[in-house]
Amino acid sequence: MKRARVAYSGAIHGAVEVDDRLKLDDGRIVDENEVVWLPPVQPRTVFALGLNYADHAKELAFKAPTEPLVFLKGPNTFVGHRAQTRRPADATYMHYECELAVVIGRPARKVKREDAYSYVAGYTVSNDYAIRDYLENYYRPNLRVKNRDTCTPIGPWLVDANDVDDPMNVTLRTYVNGNLTQEGTTRDMIFDIPALIEYLSSFMTLNEGDIILTGTPEGLVDTAVGDEIVTEIEGIGRLVNTIVGDDSFPKS
Known about the structure:
The chain is mainly β. Strand 1 (about 1-10) and strand 2 form a beta hairpin. The chain has helices at about 55-60, 145, 195-200; strands spanning about 1-10, 10-20, 20-25, 30, 35-40, 45-50, 70-75, 80, 85, 95, 100-105, 120-125, 130, 150-160, 170-175, 180-185, 210-215, 230-235, 235-245. The strands form three sheets. Strands 1, 2, 3, 4, 5, 6, 7, 8, 11, 12, 14 and 17 form a twelve-stranded mixed β-sheet that branches. A five-stranded mixed β-sheet has the order 9-19-18-15-16, with no helix packed on it. It is about 10% helix and about 40% strand. The chain has two domains: about 1-40, SH3 type barrels; about 40-250, Fumarylacetoacetate hydrolase, domain 2, CATH 3.90.850.10.
């Protein structure tokens, strides 16, 4: 089942997909363009993987890690499907990152990799924008690069784990203004989903609603104000986002 969170007629609703439309939790059926899409999960602790695809590490001229390179993201940075993402006026290189997002379904502590999938509630699509201008040292936390407001669109759907046959064999694609610019497969992750759950739960408890952003393959392109960015994962969803400039926000 595909589940969403949306705002409609002044209230927030859970919703499911029915015949390419949305069935709200009060029974009403509405069209996709009638709602404001929210992140399908209210993020709790969000883990993001750096350099989890060897081709992406090579693309950035970094050595592939031998241990998961993980940083945290704050809830301020998440927006939903069809939202706008702000590109600062001083940015010279801001690129998208199409990523499979793994949503944890129940508390997980010291999980073995053979049991890891039983802790997954579902999967969604994330676009983990990065602003390279603010990168100081890759091995320091990516706060300024990865935690800016609106810079992590996610959604539109949370797809139940049981409905995804093999999350380690799905295709990721990104389109900029309709042109395909990034294509890869989750088969190429350095650390797969069971390895990441085993690693993180070995020293901390993962809780329901925690999210793991699993990294992105090669194919990064700078974005510009006005661009429409579509990140798409086979069987999971198609996430649309638009880049806007500082002039769309009030001056402080």
